[in-house]
From TrEMBL:
It holds the Pfam family Cupin_1. It comes from Rosa chinensis (China rose). It comes from the Eukaryota. InterPro entries: Cupin_1, Germin, Germin_Mn-BS, RmlC-like_jellyroll, RmlC_Cupin_sf. This is Germin-like protein.
Length: 215
């Protein structure tokens, strides 16, 4: 009995470690030194004596992104590319603006779970599971509602309100990455062969060429 409890405790501890995201820090901070050519997982550290407040700072997230584009949405990032002080901390932020009817097209973040809150308007959101295969988990969110998109899963947002919508989302990586499914499949350079895509999507090759021209 006691040994079973010990085993359970051991499993609980080791499992929580296995769920960690970006590597944890071994120093106060490691402000990204973007001029270095040394290839590491992340960025090398700027001399801490030269670090200043602006390394941890970004302004302008109160400004609406320009949603005049085919998707009707704009993602404004606040990750390590904008804030070098985020390097090694496993966290970042985005602001997303949506015109009425606008979408943030189905995409995945290979390195981050996302937690999103609606600060204006209402959004239909959803993600698709891998196990059980391809189950859609979706919900309509109002101002102040919060929703989670698990790491790696395809997800989207859709402005279903009458006016503009705005969301702020936090992501569990300094560099979450985004793979927009339509662009990855139909907009790769060079193209994936139309034979492959016609068979994968069970459509005529001309339909594939149409999509490839769009993305
Ligand atoms: C928004 O983007 C559109 C399309 O690129 C452009 O024509 C327009 O000038 C932009 N508007 C602002 C306010 O920047």
């Amino acid at each position: 009995m006691a040994s079973q409890l010990l085993l359970l405790a051991f499993l609980a501890i080791t499992c929580s470690v296995a769920f960690a995201s970006d590597p944890s820090s071994l120093q106060d901070f490691c402000v990204a030194e973007s001029t270095s050519s040394v290839p590491v997982n992340g960025h090398v550290c700027k001399d801490p004596k030269l670090v200043e407040a602006n390394d941890f700072f970004l302004s302008g997230l109160h400004l609406a992104g320009n949603t005049s584009n085919p998707a009707g949405s704009k993602v404004t990032p606040a990750n390590v590319a904008q804030i070098p002080g985020l390097n090694t901390f496993g966290i970042s932020l985005v602001r997303i603006d949506y015109a009425p009817g606008g979408i943030n097209a189905p995409h995945t973040h290979p390195r981050a779970t996302e937690i999103l809150t609606v600060v204006e308007g209402s959004l239909e959101v959803g993600f698709v599971t891998s196990n059980p295969e391809n189950r859609l988990i979706s919900k309509v969110l109002q101002k102040g509602d919060v929703f989670v998109f698990p790491v790696g899963l395809a997800h989207f947002q859709h402005n279903v309100g009458k006016g503009n919508a705005v969301a702020i989302a936090a992501l569990s990586s300094q560099n979450p990455g985004a793979i927009t499914l339509a662009n990855a499949v139909f907009g790769s350079k060079p193209d994936i062969s139309a034979d492959v895509l016609a068979k994968a999507f069970q459509v005529d090759k001309n339909i594939v060429f149409d999509f490839q021209a769009k993305f």
